Amino acid sequence: MSSRRREATHAGSWYSSSGTKLASELSLYLSKVAPLPELDYAPPVSNAKAIIAPHAGYSYSGPTAGWAYAAIPTDKIKRVFLLGPSHHAYLSGVALSRFESYETPVGDLPLDLEAIADLRETGVFSEMKSSVDEEEHSLEMHLPYIRHVFNGREDLKLVPILVGHPDRNTLKKLNEVLARYWDDKETFFVISSDFCHWGTRFSCTPYYPNAPHPPNPVPPVPHHTNPASFTPPDLIKRFSSAEANPDVPIWKSIEYMDHEGMELLRRPGEEGAVEKWEAYLDETKNTICGRNPITVLLSLVQHVYKGKERKPEFTFVRYEQSSRCLNGRDSSVSYVSGVLRIPE
């Protein structure tokens, strides 16, 4: 194996190492995706420019991710920018891969070395250590899906970007650097993020004892016949059984909190979208692990569409939880799939 190829280090644990079995599983996930007329969602989505999709083991998040990947208009795309959070190494800004290709059981993905070289020259990016690159699952868990939906497309190239904690100045520079790729009709953006990680093992147990039903529920969360039956919610930063409302189980509180975040992301081009997103994260402490890649996307959209009348909108098409938390000893991770559509 070439040292210039990143190994599929999570194959055989987080997903199948058998190419045949993995392709079959991915095809099954995608086959379960159906049009949602109420959301004007009929994949593939011709004006989709970016998706948010989860990065957990496929047995947990694979079905949810399928709803995002089905939306990609693959016939138009030749390059994918993949932005994922750094879980295993502290990173102050953003980093590029040193590899030339990424291995997956369903076929390798070549990196766009020319684009990566251009990005390097901007001075905005640092270099990922190879060990950090191979340890990081936020990027890897998207690779088989990307390779699978672009099956047979040898012209497809990947630009992976690991996102740490870029400050305002770095975000501003990123806007300038990434804007020209955003304007390229053959370039697509994938944002890697799970949503709420709830439980003491995540040091995250916020709770809304009076959580209302989400006003714009994401499927399969049902619409509520009487959403006004709850009082406006007050947030308890640390769950306590003494303050629990028997009518609002923990999983319903998590559901509402995640929907709060999605609601803020629906119109990323609106003025103040970044600030509202960051204020929400600060208030709820919601452990959305891809918060920083999402912030990069929001900032970029703000930059590109500033002063323009028509702006992109996110359509969230799937929401799941790994399990339903009922008491303070339980834990869960939430998975969201969203599709960003640009004005046509």
TrEMBL record:
InterPro entries: MEMO1_fam. Transmembrane segments: none annotated. It holds the Pfam family Memo. Coiled coil: none annotated. It comes from the Eukaryota. Gene3D superfamilies: LigB-like. Belongs to the MEMO1 family. This is AmmeMemoRadiSam system protein B. It comes from Kwoniella shandongensis.
